[in-house]
Design a protein that fits this description.
Radius of gyration: 21 Å
Shape: elongated
Number of domains: 1
Number of helices: 9
Structural class: mainly alpha
Strand content: under 5%
Length: about 250
Amino acid sequence: MFLISLLEKLGKYALLLRKVFTKPQRWSVFFRQYLDEISKLGVNSIWIVVIISFFIGAVIVVQIKLNIDSPFMPRYTVGYVSREILILEFSSTIMCLILAGKVGSNIASEIGTMQVTEQIDALEIMGVNSANYIILPKITGLMTFIPVLVVLSMFFGVVGGFAVCIIGQIMPADTFQYGLQSFFKQFYIWYALAKTVVFAFIISSVSSYYGYHAKGGSLDVGKASTDSVVMSSILILIADLLITQLMMS
């Protein structure tokens, strides 16, 4: 039964994407919605990205300093390891998991509410491709702006590390800076950004799927929102493993 249910959901998901990725009926309307979605889903998420990244960056530096404080390890290792953690996993993967909770639930609940209040049916009656009209701007908007959020996360994570070095006197800031600059590989930045584009597609499309197929009332919208966050998180972790294996091996 589980396998049948999974195949059914995959089929519905594929059919929905087929409806989504068609030419917009009016490009002016699409671009207006696209900009609205960037503002609503992306710009409004900057504050949570900045706050979390700053404090997690500071905590990472403190933890690494305490756990590798050894005369056999150079002191700049703290900066080096902190940079690798922030770029390779925290800012690119963990931050997208956090955004799956904030942005994904927002998308699922918004579309789910439109479904249960028959607004989507009204669009279909008027001859509008509802999936393309509602979902495509969300997918493109999130895929455009999440890399910006990830770059901000990397930056403020490093700022948090510097802050704890200067204010908390954990270690000299110049030693931390030397570690940040040591053995830097530019490819890691592109790897992280490539991952986030895939994660943005997963968050937006999966959340839209659960919202679009919500049935019943407000309780069902809440369930669709919860299911979208859970499934998005699982798929992000699976995609992270696959992309890392493909790009880093």
